[in-house]
Design goal:
mainly alpha; 7 helices; 79% helix; transmembrane helix; Homeodomain-like_sf; coiled coil; Transposase; WH-like_DNA-bd_sf
Length: 268
Amino acid sequence: MFRHLIHTLTHRSSLVEITLQQIMAHLDSIRKDMVILEKSEFATLRAENEKMKIEIGHVRQHLQNETNQIRADTKLDINLERSRLTDMFTEQEKKLMEASTEFHKKNMSTDGAITEINKKIDIDIASLKTLMESHKLDTIRYLAASWEIGQDIRKRIVDLHKSGSSFGTITRYLKVPRSSVQTIIHKYKQDGNVQSSYRSGRRRVLCPRDERALVRHVHINPRTKAKDLVKMMTEAGKIVSISTVKRVLYQHGLKGHSARKKPLLHKK
């Protein structure tokens, strides 16, 4: 019985070992199959990966080429646009400089013309002022020499003198020559009135100063006509006739003559 048990156990252990060996062999085959399968799948995956890498490389190269082409086209367009803008800016700047130069030239010419006009205006104004002052002085001189001072002014001169005003003050206040003031006050002290002395005959239209002016003008320009002298005296404030002018000139030894008409030597 014991032997049978040992034989049974031995037989079972043998069976277990055989079974274990079979299992181990089966596991080895499975492992080999797995290794082979894994190797084949890995190879497939590697091949797929390599293929994808190649495709990705082609796509990348294509994208790189497209990017380079687009970049080159964009750079070319940018350079062309920049050149166009530069040329346009240069042209506009040139036009602006020409317009500015033309404007400055016109402005300078206008300023020069305005300056010349202003100078001429100033010169004309100064000459007119000088002429007006000279005419004013001549008028004052003519009036002082030929016109008689009115009774109201004579009375005011006497009143101012009685109030204590000096001759210079009366002269500046009433715009009357100092000699006239002295004459009026002297006459008042002597006669007790300021009436003008009685004079026979008509008053002379021209005073000695006017006569000297006529004679001087004729000496300067002997071809002056009598009507021109009348016009000159009228502008000075003296209304005279041609006969008066001729009489004054005749008194100073100046006679009027008409030039002799000479016949033509040749027919026209």
